[in-house]
Amino acid sequence: MIDSDVTVRRASDADAPALAGLRWRSDNQARGGQGDSLTEFAATLGDWMRSHPEHLVFVAETAGEVIGMAWLAVLDRVPTVHKYVRRGGDVQSVYVVPERRDRRVGALLMSAVLDEARRLELGHVTVHSSTRAVSFYERNGWSRDPEWLSWASEA
User: Fold this and answer.
1) Burial of 133 by CB count in 10 Å (0-12 exposed, 13-18 middle, 19+ buried)?
2) Strands 125-127, 55-62: pairing kind
3) What CATH number has the domain bearing residue 38?
4) Is residue 150 domain-resident?
5) Degrees to nearest 5, angle at CA 125 with 152 and 22
6) CA 22, CA 122: separation in Å to the nearest integer?
7) Does residue 114 sit within a domain?
8) Does residue 149 lie within any of the structural domains?
């Protein structure tokens, strides 16, 4: 099934409460439990968004309700002698409310993110995926890279 009533757009500061709600919901599904205050988190996320303009966020909405999000962190890379301006991207915090999954909402979000990556001429874009979402990314044009390594602190 495809949701034809869904639109995707760049988010603004006014979307911070809706984005906070999605992030809250996502974290609760992934880890269980709740934070201290959704209202406080929404204010914190809004402040964070304003202080991190290199993090671009796209929202999927229908009938004025935000039902999904995808973030693109744009990162400056070290210049080379052949290319002085180099940038890459990292897709973060992709989430679609469960009741709207499997209707191509995530694909619409990913298309908007990758269109923006092309427009910005990003050299590469990465994503750290949950096991459940790997097939989603592969269906949407992503491939595994055997040279990609990761490290995580114990904190």
Assistant:
1) middle
2) unpaired
3) 3.40.630.30
4) no
5) 70
6) 27
7) yes
8) no
The string of pLDDT tens digits covering residues 61-102 is 999 999 999 999 999 999 999 999 999 999 999 999 999 998
30: containing domain: 7-139
The count of structural domains within the chain is 1
Task: Say if CB 60 and CB 67 are below 8 A apart.
Answer: yes
Residues 28/30/31/34 CA torsion (nearest 10 deg): -10
Sites in the chain below the pLDDT cut of 50: none
| DSSP code of residue 66 | E
Closest CA to 17 of 90, 92, 72, 69: 69
For residue 67, give the DSSP letter. E
Residue 68 lies in a domain: yes
Q: Residues in the chain, how many?
A: 155
- In the chain the beta strands, taken as DSSP E runs, fall at 7-10, 55-62, 65-77, 86-96, 125-127
